[in-house]
Each structure stands twice: as structure tokens, then as C-alpha cells.
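seq as requested:
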Amino acid sequence: MLHRGSVTDAPLLSGLAADDRMKFIAGLDDRGQAIPLTPATLRRHAATWPLGATTPDGIAGLLKTSRNLYICSYFAYEFLTIGVLASGGSGGAATEAVFEGSLRDSRR
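C-alpha cells:
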């Protein structure tokens, strides 16, 4: 699995308050205790989303943007929706680019 570009460390976001709509739990620990949702838990989750070795740079860039928006959605909930649109959810830009490239390749 290849991850191009770093996922936001977000030092500029320190000191900001969480968006009230993002006050969820991120899961349960080994003892069954709630793990609070934080930018760090979102960052770790986004880092697990793979890219293929043949993912074109433009699409990899859109996916990096999507990951960063996902992390920043902790502070601005609306970024979550924008990140999904950039990544390919609901016919987003990255999905469209992949299908366009596949269609072009199949016509050769």
C-alpha cells in the first residue's frame, strides 16, 4: 500500500474548539471504555486508507485533500461532506477521474 503525501498534522488547528456535531466516540478500548474522537484518532483512521501503486498523481492529490478535510472536520463539520465529494463519494472528483481514465484506456 502506498500513501502519497502526508496527512495533515494540523499544528495551525491547535487551540480551536471541536465542532459540537463531531462529539462522538471513536470506538472502544480493550477495557470497553469509550475512546474520544480527536484530530489524532481521525488522522490515524485516514492513514489506513490505501492508494494503489498505479494511482495517478492527480487522483492521489484529490484523495490526500479528502483525508485532510476529514481530519479538519473535527473543527468544521462541513469539511466532512466536502471531503467525501473530493474523494469520490456521490460521484466525486476522484471517482470520476478514475472512471474517465479507465474508459480512455479501454478504448486504446
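The chain has four helices and two strands.
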